[in-house]
Amino acid sequence: MSNRELIVKIFHEVLDTTDSCLSSTLEDNTVLLDSGLDSLGFAILVARLEEELGFDPFVEMKEAVYPTTFADFVKIYDERKGAF
Amino acid sequence: MNTLTLEPFSPQNTDMVLSWRNSARVRCNSIDDSIITKESHNLFLNTLSQHTSKRYFVMHMGTQPVGVLSFSGIGQDQVTWGCYIGSEKISPGTFPLMVCIAIKFAFQFESTASLHSEVAAHNHAPLKLNQYLGVDSTGEITKKTTSGKVVQFMQFCVSKDDVKKVLDKAEKILTSSLRTQLNSFKVLNEQ
């Protein structure tokens, strides 16, 4: 399973866990803040991804970058995976 | 590993704190929604130095300042806390982390029996987080902000008996590095 597929799968799980609704179809250009997940949802998403992938790319960043779109979010995980 | 520190308010962090506190994003969720001047902030710093029951901190994750945590009632049985996130660039999980730090900081004092907070009813993220963590809602109150707006606030309370339950739930939504930071956070220049 690619990072993207895993993220999409867990993203939907977290929407259910937090009683949130996806505002529209999750696309690469979906703006995260408008996606339907709030700060609680993103905390859970990143914690769940750490369980699956074994790393938290945000804590490892020297300078914090908050992704704007869904594609930016996936890229952070792809780049971290590729770096090791 | 990044360390998590609480730096007390001081003249050195005034400009940064005011740039956060005076942003529309923070003021719209505050009872005092006025613009705070540097002069009045300096007077406030003088007051803080004379009242040990009030503690105001800038929270840093590594070298990055991320927000403010405030406490009043330290040394008494009821402590009240508040927070706001200052930086636009924060790691996911920062907000639940702030809740955990508030609980750990407040209940390190023997006298603390309960930790209280108020959240504007239109501020959905903290309301949802409190609900998710099982923090008891104790009521609601209507208040007039400094600018005269009437705002409904929801009141929350963590009692000493609930600390473990809430922290256990919160730690499940933190990544392992954030949990490590939480368990080793430091208060700078503690008197």
Characterize the structure shown.
The complex is a heterodimer of chains A (84) and B (191). Chain A has 84 residues and is an all-alpha fold. Chain A has a single domain, classed as Orthogonal Bundle (Non-ribosomal Peptide Synthetase Peptidyl Carrier Protein, Chain A), CATH 1.10.1200.10. Helix content of chain A is 56%, strand content 0%. Chain A has four helices and no strands. In chain A, helix 1 (3-17) packs across helix 2 (39-53). Chain A is globular and about 35 Å long. Chain A starts with a helix and ends with a helix. Chain B has a single domain (4-116, 160-187), classed as Aminopeptidase, CATH 3.40.630.30. Chain B has helices at 14-21, 24-27, 38-50, 94-106, 124-133, 163-171, 176-182, and strands at residues 4-8, 55-61, 64-72, 78-85, 114-120, 136-144, 150-159, 186-187. In chain B, helix 4 (94-106) packs antiparallel against helix 6. Chain B is an alpha+beta fold and 191 residues long. In chain B, a hairpin with a 2-residue loop joins strand 2 and strand 3 (64-72). An eight-stranded mixed sheet of chain B has the order 6-7-5-4-3-2-1-8, sandwiched between helices. The mean pLDDT of chain B is 94. The A-B interface holds A 18, 38-40, 42-47, 50, 56, 58-61, 63-66 and B 2, 64, 87-96, 124-125, 128-129, 132, 172-178.
Largest sheet of chain B: 8 strands, mixed
Beta-strand level of the residues of chain A, as a percent range?
under 5%
Report mean pLDDT of chain B, rounded to a whole number.
Answer: 94
Please work out how many helical segments of chain B DSSP would assign: 7
